[in-house]
């Protein structure tokens, strides 16, 4: 089996843990490829102590990989998708981070992870993605978002207005700091911090969540994910901020953005023992009295 390893960097992960994990994978008979981003912290040092069979970068054809292991937290998962979605490779998140709604395998259980991979034929499930088009075409080279698409004000205290249409029909003008269009997967992310609802990951819905709305009657709205949205942000300034997950760029205001469900999907590996309900209770401290 051919396995790829990817991470955004190991400032939180001791190098010896990575070396040990890589050696165990090799001893189990896996062929390993390592992303250039993972190697970056070691370029001026001694490097990794396990021998990898190759290095890949974003844009390379890695479709011959069987699995891509994302080593880090949920932010690393979002970056890993830039490699896995174009190649249609399933991802298993090994959680070296904090929240871990997407990175579901525990980094302390490397022997169990390797045994699970060695067994083969894992259960694979998909998560829907959102796509974004402007009047000039796609804004990002990889035009998909797993968590959310956000339109927000940039470098100013002034509010922006986002004229919003559903299937071409006018819905509302949102006044505030911006607007989040979230998938069910992303409902535990930025949308949640702005008061949006939590949806089960397999819920076929999207959520419109206002960011600090000027009118407090503007509440989050849940819609079926087969509809298309049109957003026309308006600002006193010429630029606004548009983001897809962790990628962002400035964009001229007063232009229309179109959001819909992507034709592509993100593939993930179901890890034994993981439960979304358990994750919610653990990560959000439900049922725990934290006053003392």
Description:
β2 (31-35), α2 (36-39) and β3 form a beta-alpha-beta unit. The protein has 2 domains: 2-123 and 270-283, Probable inorganic polyphosphate/atp-NAD kinase, domain 1 (Rossmann fold, 3-Layer(aba) Sandwich), CATH 3.40.50.10330; 130-263, Tumour Suppressor Smad4 (Sandwich), CATH 2.60.200. It starts with a strand and ends in a 9-residue tail after the last helix. With 292 residues, the chain is an alpha/beta fold. It is built from 6 helices and 17 strands. A 6-stranded parallel beta sheet has the order 3-2-1-4-5-6, with helices on both faces. It has a 6-stranded antiparallel beta sheet with strand order 13-12-11-8-15-16, with no helix packed on it. Strands 7-17-14-9-10 form a 5-stranded antiparallel beta sheet, covered by helices on one side.
